[in-house]
Design brief:
By secondary structure, this protein is mainly beta. It contains one helix and five strands, in the order βββββα. The strands form two sheets. Strands 2-1-3 form a three-stranded antiparallel β-sheet, with no helix packed on it. A two-stranded antiparallel sheet has the order 4-5. The chain is globular and about 45 Å long. The termini are far apart.
Amino acid sequence: MLEYRNPSTPVGIVSGATRAHETVQLTSLDQMLEQEIGMQSTVIIGNSASFVFNDKMITPRGYKKKYGL
């Protein structure tokens, strides 16, 4: 993935979703493999517009650009 994406691309990792032991990690593409990822993990890799704000991964929908807002 690092061949095609910026190393600072945000990555969200959710493990054990909806379970008592659920964990959420925010990292970057170049640091992703340093995190614990297992069979109960969902990995979400952001796109070129994704960013982290207040410990949340945000990907704008594009309406601002589409409608000139």
